[in-house]
Amino acid sequence: MLLRQIEYYLAVINTGSFSEAAEVCHISQSAVSQQIKALEEELGVELLRRHNRTFSMTPAGELFYRKATVLRSDLEQLKRDVRRTSASQAKKLRIGYLRCYGGTEFQDAMALFSERHPETELEVLSGNHEDLYNALRREDVDLVLNDQRRAFSDDYVNYELVKSRCYVEMASRLPLAKLSRLDVSDLKNTPCILVTGREQRENESSYFRDIVGFTGPHLYTETLPEARILVASGKGFLPVEGIREDTYFDTAISRIPLYKNGRPLFRNYCAFWKNENTDPLIREFADLLKTRFV
Questions:
Q1: Domain check: are 201 and 78 in the same one?
Q2: pLDDT at 244
Q3: Do residues 122 and 244 both lie within one domain?
């Protein structure tokens, strides 16, 4: 049994088509069919039942598919482990991101980068704006996804990713959630829920009170899921970090555009890294991240 026969079989099942599997494997459709047939003959069992232009897996085929998928996963992990044992190939990229960020762009970029560079170990640090700024300054991370709260510094690459509308989330049953948009002044008596560690509570409160204008009480959680539990419970509203307007929530939570003095509020998201850090993997990850925002 050859590993490529296993790959062909998995491709046929995963695509649901011999022709599409041939495209994925970069061989002819007839070659895929021949290799699957040879695999069945070696095993002495029928893996697929052909029905004109369609097929279905036999019980043996289903078992083989499950076991072969596990085997393929183990082989991929083996390749990554072997590559990382080589000091000349060992790579590490340390990335920081906002712990309150609710979009999927960061995860998408991580997945794409890992697929391209399986030999590179990704270390991830989460924090609020000040945590990430300090981590980058101390060189604890190579790159951070952060919002722009300061003027750009010449000591860093300030790679602009997107200018995003600002939103808040609140329990759908609350009267304010019935409005199509909310002004900062509308929220003056409603608690603002902030996702931050204890050591940065004052910094976060100062920013959202003095710069954004949320003058009501502030509540704190350390994780985004905890914050959304408070939101769903009607304890207050959550300033949203992230650009996706179509993020799914159940009917318990509404996402509402945020305005200030009648104008929509925006926030800039950037990738930051030190100018002196010239590792090409940093720029590649930043470019991948930007494609996710686009």
A1: no
A2: 53
A3: no
The answer to whether the beta carbons of residues 25 and 8 sit under 8 Å apart is: yes
Q: Is 88 exposed, middle or buried (0-12, 13-18, 19+ CB in 10 A)?
A: exposed
- Separation CA 149–CA 88 (nearest Å): 39
pLDDT in tens, 143-164: 999 998 888 989 999 999 998 8
Q: What is the mean pLDDT of residues 235-264?
A: 81
Closest Cα to residue 274, out of 124, 107, 153? Answer: 153
Tell me which residue range forms the domain holding 211: 167-264
What tokens appear for 133 in the block?
Answer: 């700024």
The angle formed by the CA atoms of residues 63, 67 and 68, to the nearest 5 degrees, is 110
Interatomic CA distance for residues 64 and 58, integer angstroms: 10
172/260 same-domain check: yes
Q: What is the pTM of this model?
A: 0.66
Residues 48 and 65 in one domain: yes
| Residue 42 burial by Cβ neighbours in a 10 Å radius (0-12, 13-18, 19+) | exposed
